[in-house]
Design goal:
Membrane topology: Single-pass membrane protein
CATH topology of one domain: Glycoprotein, Type 4 Pilin
Oligomer: single chain
InterPro entries: Bac_GSPG_pilin (IPR000983), N_methyl_site (IPR012902), Pilin-like (IPR045584), T2SS_protein-GspG_C (IPR013545), Type2_sec_GspG (IPR010054)
Pfam family, one: N_methyl
Mean pLDDT: 84
Subcellular location: Cell inner membrane
Number of strands: 3
CATH superfamily of one domain: Glycoprotein, Type 4 Pilin
Radius of gyration: 31 Å
Order of helices and strands: HHEEE
Keywords: Cell inner membrane, Cell membrane, Membrane, Methylation, Transmembrane, Transmembrane helix
CATH architecture of one domain: 2-Layer Sandwich
Structural class: mainly alpha
Length: about 150
Amino acid sequence: MKMVSKHRKRSLIAKRQAGFTLLELMVVAAILSLLVALVAPNILGRSDDAKVAVAKTQLRNIVSALDLYKLDNGQYPSTAQGLQALVNRPTGYPEARNWKQGGYLSSVPQDPWGFDFLYISPSAQGEYELVTLGADGRDGGEADASDISSRDL
């Protein structure tokens, strides 16, 4: 029986423990791939839901600013004056006699998909309507592409 020195024995053990085998790496890669396949669709689908929630929050904020505008000035801005009347003192009719210095919003936001909100005053349904057309930027649609109106809040 051949005697292996302690030093040589340690170096052999160290070589065996120095890295991962190809099989170990493949198992880890397979597990990671499985996790990504299971988790990614859930995470990716949530961004659409989040944008819809942000759009509704923005609509509520603009509605609140419009209500304050009406309290100060007696009526909502016209379609021609638009949502800019909440940022800068509007000209034209109806006159904004008690317009609040500094405005009602710091700026008019775009919806989460990068489109302008549609503002119509007066609308066929009442005093005004505020709408975002959703992800597709077109009338109608389904899921995150559906229209969201201030009337639906």
